[in-house]
Amino acid sequence: MSAQPASTGDPKLAAPADLPTHIGVIMDGNGRWATRSGLPRSVGHERGVDALRKTVTAGQKLGLSYLTVYSFSTENWRRPASEVGALFSLLRAFIKKDLKRLKSEDVRISVFGTRSGLPQDICDLLDYAVSETSENTRFNLGIAFNYGGREEIARAARRVARKVMEGELSLEELDQDAISAHLDTSEFPDPDVIIRTGQEHRLSNFLVWQSAYSELVFMDVLWPDFGEPHLKAALETFSARERRFGGLSSGAA
Length: 253
Ligand code: IPE
Ligand code: IPE
Ligand code: MG
Known about the structure:
CATH architecture: 3-Layer(aba) Sandwich
Order of helices and strands: EHHEHEHEHHEEH
Number of domains: 1
Oligomer: single chain
Distance between the termini: 28 Å
Bound molecules: 3-methylbut-3-enyl trihydrogen diphosphate, magnesium ion
Shape: globular
Number of helices: 7
Strand order of the largest sheet: 3-4-2-1-5-6
Number of strands: 6
């Protein structure tokens, strides 16, 4: 079922009472948005950054605590080098332009993914964004960049294995919590809801461990057109879901 906004830009549409703690967003559809208007795909990505800004602002306004956005996957290297380069340049521009404001808004930035293959200046900028905002507490923005869920799990497994080999952890202690604690997202709760725009109904390797019990909300809107009304619509959809985590409905017992 797709969630669509009940109305566009209606200021009276209040945020639902039971807000999720952590929202993950698969920001998909930039290329199609541009192609549809006869524009180069890179323009779709540029507009996608504007939609990201709007979404972070809306998330802050609605009182969310954690938002993780999927910006570049480990599989996106399969795209032409020119498109990969354009995506990297947009990340550079975003950090250079927005970091000061985000810092002043008490936003803490975390970065999830591998540094493997990334240009050194991108790694340095990501480190800078994380360290500059590390004391902030009001809103947590996770940027999944050069991120793949399976790659993250494999890296976590290597970290845990090293601790076992070095005697810091026993085999018996190697349980689900130990794996979670060694993921890039260890300081974030599991996402309550994952929103995917752009008409595809899949996770595409996003937070595959953490999404075991996430509510999935698929929206037809292409990412550059996403804004506060869509976020509110997704929250309404989430609040209408019954989460059972393998148990029974309340009242069924
Ligand atoms: C999402 O938009 C952005 C990234 C994957 C980096 P796409 O570029 O995948 O847009 P479509 O799916 O081709 O329309
Ligand atoms: C997922 O979108 C990755 C990001 C949004 C960064 P894709 O466009 O890469 O996913 P697929 O290829 O359609 O599965
Ligand atoms: Mg896509």
